Amino acid sequence: MGCTMSKGTHEGGRLENHMHLSRGLGSHKRRTKKQRPVPEAPQDEEVLARSEGSVCSRSSSSSASASANSGNAGAANATTGKLGAAVSRLAKKRSSYEGKKDVRRKVLYTIKSEGLEDPAAFSLARGSSEAAADAAASLENEIVRFRGFRMSDLKEFWRTLVADEHVVLYEAKSDIAAAHVSMGQTLFRVKEMDSQDRVLCRAAFRRDEIEVPLDQLRKKEAEQWTVEDVCNFVVVPRTTKTDCFFEDTCSGDEAFGRPFEGAFVVHARQARMASLVQSLETHFCEHGEPLDKTYVWIDTFCANQALLSQDTPQTDHAQVTDFKKAARNERAGPHESDHASLLGLRRKLIRSTLHKAQRRFQETIVFIEDCQDPEPMRRAWCLWEMYGAAVGTRHPMNLVFGAGTDANVSAWLRDGRGGDELLRAIYEIDMRTMESRNDGDLSTIRKAILRLPGGLPEFKATVVWCLLRWFRERVEQAVIVAERDAAEPARDRSLAHLLVNAGGFMRKMNEFDVAFGYFDQAVRIFSRIDGSQSVNAGMAKHRAAVVRHAQERYDEAYSLFDEALFIKRAHYGNRHVIVADLLHNMAGSAAALQEYEEAAELYAEALSIKREKLGLEHASVANTLHDLAFVRRLQGQCDLSLALYGKALAIYKNALGPRDAAVAHTLNNMGAVKECQGHFDEAITLYREALSLLRETLGERHASVAEPPAQMAALMEAQGKHAEALDLLQESASIRRETLGSRHESVADALEGMAVIKDTLGERDQSLELFAEALIIRKESLSHPSRPPVGAVSFGDENTIISSEHDPSISSPTPARSSSVPSTVNNRRRSVADTLNNMAIVSGSQGKHDEAIDFYGQALDMCRDTDGERDMAVANMLAGMGSAKVAQNKFDEALQMYNQVLEIRRDKLGKSHLSVADTLQDIGAIKHAQGKFVEEISMYEEAMTICKVCLGERHRAVANVHNNLGGAYDAQGEYRKALEQYSEALDIYTETTEDKDADSAIASTLNNMGIVKKSLGEYSEALALYKRSLAIKRRIWDHEANLSIADTTGNIAAIKGVQGDLSGALADYEETLSIKRTILGASHLNVAEILVNMGVMEKNQGRFDDALEHFTQALEIQRAHSPRDARVAQTLNNMAVVKGGQGEYEGALLLCKEALDIKREALGPRHDSVADTLNNMALAKEASGNGDEAYALFEQALSIRKEALGERHLSVADILNNMAIVKEEQGRDEEAWTLYAEALSIRKSALHERHSLVADSLNNMGAVRRMQGKYDEALALNTEAMDIYRETLSEWHPSLARSMFNMALVHEGLGEFDQALEYAQKSEHIWRKTLGDNHRDTLSAESLVEDLRLAVVASAQG
């Protein structure tokens, strides 16, 4: 969300700078998840995706293995011919226990004996052998070695084992209590008893032999033996006596390879051994790898099973679903005292050794025997090994399926079915329910997972991503093979069907570009075979449209939906349900394009068809009603939206049951509409009903239960109930952490919601901390997505081969599903950018503009990387950075950025788009800050033209521009024109509102008109306007405690202060103070602002002690927030002015110096605010009689101001004016005259020749000539000034009175006492009416009148 400066209204005497914090509740705007998003073409939830690493192709175990181990591809390629063969033979013949010196000696001997003097090959052989030996020495220990078992030997081992008549296994048919044997348990036959009906057996992990009746056993054929059976009844007995490795029992030195040679095999212990051996053999043969040169690391043969079995529990398939239970088992396990060292080795293997070793193997193979029940996806060890392969290896992870199963991606794509259960198992990997036969291992793995940077979500996302990468590669390979094998690919129908199914796979994995390519290719093939208007072509276009919608390319999606709709209408007719579904999906794209009326029409047509074909009470009818209700709400038709939601709700209750989740979601969305209508109590009731229903149907701690509290929090925040909002968000965050993990993106959403509230409360440091935590989570999600698409993997009809008789529709979205925007990679990057944007806004509100610009810069880079240089998101971030530059008074830089924004928006949206009008108004605001009011007005007028073209002349957005024009004319001193603009805005607001007595825009405009009336000196009329504004605001919010009400009461207090009604002013300020303390707390910075305003009023009235008291209270609050903040400096500045007014110039200077130090530190030494303080220090020096020092300080201030604002800025004229006063008091009238003249020139060029500030300069110049005795010139100058005042100000304005007072002094100097008395009396009358009887100006005029009366009498007598 870009930080904008668009100004709809202005209150409190200044134009508002709207910098909206975007909330993180699901999408990137405030409170968007409480309603469904723009209905979209249905799509499954996305598969976790991440940037891909390189995928290495399989290499053989000779020179390519050496290459993999050495990391020196160049050397590997150089090893060719006899030299390569020699090095390979040497490595193969090496004994497992050879030392490094022996290896080097044998390599050298072989090279020299065969005359192979290639240094590169020698280096390679030496390096790879040494590296492997070093790694093996550091990673291997008593329980594990990392030498793989040769496939040919594994195959021979299995053949021999199966043929061994002494190895017989049985399986218990039922529980055998006497023998302590459970049903299904495997037993090893020790020997047959003399009686034919009994057998002597041994169970795993038991030393005693048991006699079991044969009729209670069934023989377990070799084909059914599991890997665990082989381990328990073959490997363990074979190695137990010496606690050795299986490798040590094998004859020959080549059955096991070099360290890390070959493939690391991940498998479940319950997999059938025959299937594992056969599948591995098939896998390697298909890839052309000879079995006698291929090695596999399988823990049964490569770990010390004799030692490990000593720590194996008696129970099988131990499952621990509770972290605390697992940890307890680990700490106090039954073997801890006897096997402490063994446990330590196991833990070390899990925590570090295993993954370090894995990354050195050439390949990781995940063996899945049964795709319908993929056990490795539930086993803790398997999942931990898969994670190691995903993060630690440079080589591929491959899936190998059980022998005899039809588990082949090509077959799935060809037949249009298969793979569903496997994908579902991948998506539903759940660390909380994973299993292990050893409780201690399970606990250790869980703890290791929790120590990962992203915890459980990080672990799951990484494993899922790696598995899906394999799927993606196989789909791509299958398509390539199908294209190669097709006789005529451009006209092959089976290829087209395969492409459609491949596209479905890719779409589910968020590979949208690839998916679209497949669908598009299928469209072309179907078009060539059956024609472009064939039903199959239409089906493929429909799916291509779904992909484009998911990519947020709504224009293309809409066009494709339209083409598909035309085809389906022609084939099925206009009233078919398939047509209705497509209309529904097309409406989603139209709504995303903000074509709301067209979307409503499409939904209405879909609704009509569904009602006709499915009946009035079908759930699909409710889906369309639901989405139509959302569109009507976006159009502002809240009553109609509620009626539609009500109808959908009734159908859901009837069709799905009153307790279905769809009912809860609909209630939640109805609450959102009620909130928009301002019916907060009704909204809260609906939210609570939805929450209660979700808790009942899903449980108290389900992830979906976290949503309604977040929505209620947003509502509470809007009502100013910040504490309640925080409690609700904390509850929501707690549930999300528990169910999704502490690093889940939705936790970041809740954190950002809390951060926004903290910022509102003025607790900006805490706000930034929360944003920073959210940012970390969002950045992690870029590479490790935290939202696995659980439950969204069923292919359904979409991946079924489509024939001319069958065209299944894509079902419409239902509100029972998550209402969040799909978390694509680009969306996650945008979320990061939005968080950075929010952090920039908070930093800016703290006055840390450099920090804010840094955040904006990071967000800008993210947007550019995601969407390109010319994207709208880039424009938004540039606008935010521009606003920060404005806050630094770097207007030229800001203007450059906003010009880029304007260029992008014109390019993307057209010159007459409303966003262009917004940008023009932003540029106008910068022109205002630069004092270039003519250019500002030009910007607003262009924006006005666009708004009128787009919206009509009487739209409220047009009224907003009138408001901004009013502000521009107000700043120019064109008060009458300002009032005309405000009046026009007021008329439009009044015409377009439903209740003119409860319209906040009307209240704001009345407030702005009051500001102008105050500038005109028409204080009574200003007060009346403020009171009208206040009355509306009180009616809108129905209670006193509202910040907008406080703003207006503050304005009323300021008017009363000017009028001299100090008691009334203080009463209004106290009310303002009370409201802000109630809502924001007594220590909020906004409370400090009111205290400052009270102090300023009292200072102007000469009540210096009271002013100091309020300034001191404000200072305490400001320093508590940030002792070196610029606001602290400003308050010190105000206190210095008071001290100066009391004649305590030294005290004033000390305060100014402290303020100066803070400003230079906080804002930089050349900031315009530094010039303000230097100016005040100069005034104090001047008042204490140090004119030269004062002038020097004025010169410093002038230099900074010219640099910061430009040579011809109005503020430059102000300092020139002060410098002239110093010269004038020093009696250097001509120098003073020159400075006054320069100030006059600037004011005329920046404003216009008849502006009241021009009259001020003329007045000052007249005073110089009067003091020089040049009364005629003085009279001319003062007369011109008085004429300007009369033109631009009201007849009761204090400035007009000042001009008349000066005229009286000139006429006095000319001896024209009658005329002098007349002017003096007029000035006294105006000041007495506007400022009160006791104001110092009134008293000065009264004294002059008395003197002139005496002079008139004396003149008459003389």
From TrEMBL:
<dbReference type="InterPro" id="IPR011990">
    <property type="entry name" value="TPR-like_helical_dom_sf"/>
</dbReference>
<feature type="compositionally biased region" description="Basic and acidic residues">
    <location>
        <begin position="8"/>
        <end position="19"/>
    </location>
</feature>
<dbReference type="Pfam" id="PF13424">
    <property type="entry name" value="TPR_12"/>
</dbReference>
<feature type="repeat" description="TPR">
    <location>
        <begin position="580"/>
        <end position="613"/>
    </location>
</feature>
<feature type="region of interest" description="Disordered">
    <location>
        <begin position="802"/>
        <end position="828"/>
    </location>
</feature>
<dbReference type="Pfam" id="PF13374">
    <property type="entry name" value="TPR_10"/>
</dbReference>
<keyword id="KW-0677">Repeat</keyword>
<feature type="repeat" description="TPR">
    <location>
        <begin position="1003"/>
        <end position="1036"/>
    </location>
</feature>
<feature type="repeat" description="TPR">
    <location>
        <begin position="959"/>
        <end position="992"/>
    </location>
</feature>
<protein>
    <submittedName>
        <fullName>Kinesin light chain 3</fullName>
    </submittedName>
</protein>
<keyword id="KW-0802">TPR repeat</keyword>
<dbReference type="InterPro" id="IPR019734">
    <property type="entry name" value="TPR_rpt"/>
</dbReference>
<feature type="repeat" description="TPR">
    <location>
        <begin position="664"/>
        <end position="697"/>
    </location>
</feature>
<feature type="region of interest" description="Disordered">
    <location>
        <begin position="1"/>
        <end position="79"/>
    </location>
</feature>
<feature type="compositionally biased region" description="Basic residues">
    <location>
        <begin position="26"/>
        <end position="36"/>
    </location>
</feature>
<feature type="repeat" description="TPR">
    <location>
        <begin position="1088"/>
        <end position="1121"/>
    </location>
</feature>
<feature type="repeat" description="TPR">
    <location>
        <begin position="875"/>
        <end position="908"/>
    </location>
</feature>
<feature type="compositionally biased region" description="Low complexity">
    <location>
        <begin position="50"/>
        <end position="78"/>
    </location>
</feature>
<feature type="compositionally biased region" description="Low complexity">
    <location>
        <begin position="809"/>
        <end position="823"/>
    </location>
</feature>
